Each structure stands twice: as structure tokens, then as C-alpha cells.
Amino acid sequence: MWPVELRKTRAEEAVLLGEPALKDAEDVLLKRWLRCGHCRGRVTAEDDRVVVEGEHVHRRTNPAGIEFEFGCFLAAPGAQVVGEPTFEFTWFAGRAWAYSMCRGCGTHLGWHFEGRDPAFHALILDRLEVEETPEAA
User: Fold this and answer.
1) pLDDT by residue (tens digit) across 78-112?
2) Which of 46, 58, 60, 96 is most buried when burial is the number of CB atoms within 10 A of its CB?
3) 3 state SS of 137
């Protein structure tokens, strides 16, 4: 399991893609950032989580046999999309992917998927850390 502990998503309630995973007022009172595990730069916020194909967290294996566990996020201002989007070996039908790299240090954090609205970042969970002190939203 991954070290980032997030509040429970609404996947079990079949939240549609594009609808934020956090909906209750008490869920958005504090904004908790997820930081790059390498440079500690802010990457995304907990309230940017999104459910894709019925889940926020996914496990997929790439063609080299490496398994990744990642969470889906609508926004990741601390990640930079790098490379030309491709449909080759995509994990989500109808969506092209490119790399999501940390803006601060260049660490590979995951992938950005586009092609069907909304676009989202699939961020590798063991490469993120939860900010210790949430800020008021």
C-alpha cells in the first residue's frame, strides 16, 4: 500500500468521471497538498482527486512488466506534462497519455491522460507525500 493516506473517496457510490471525489462540506474545509516525495514541492491537492472508471486508485502494469499504483487528479499544478501524447499502450480507452513530471525537480510522477473530457493526471502514489499541516481552504 502507499504512504499517502487520503480520506475515503466516493468510488463505492459510482461517482462519475469529472465529479470531484470529495463532496461533503466537511471534506473541503481544509486543503491538504500532496508533495513530490523527492523535492517536497506541492504537486496537487487532496480535493483535486477524481474517480475514473469507477475508482480513484488504479493498479496497472506497463509493457516492461512494472506495476504502478496511481491516483487520478483533475489538476496538478506542480506537475508538468512532457512529451507528445500517445495512444500506444494506454490504460484508458480513448485517452492519449504523456508523462507528468515534477516542476521542481523533474521526477517522473505519473502520466497525464487526455482525449475525452475531462483530462486528468494519474499520479504514482508512492512518489507523493501528504503535507503535514493542511491550510484553510
Assistant:
1) 999 999 999 999 999 999 999 999 999 999 999 99
2) 46
3) coil
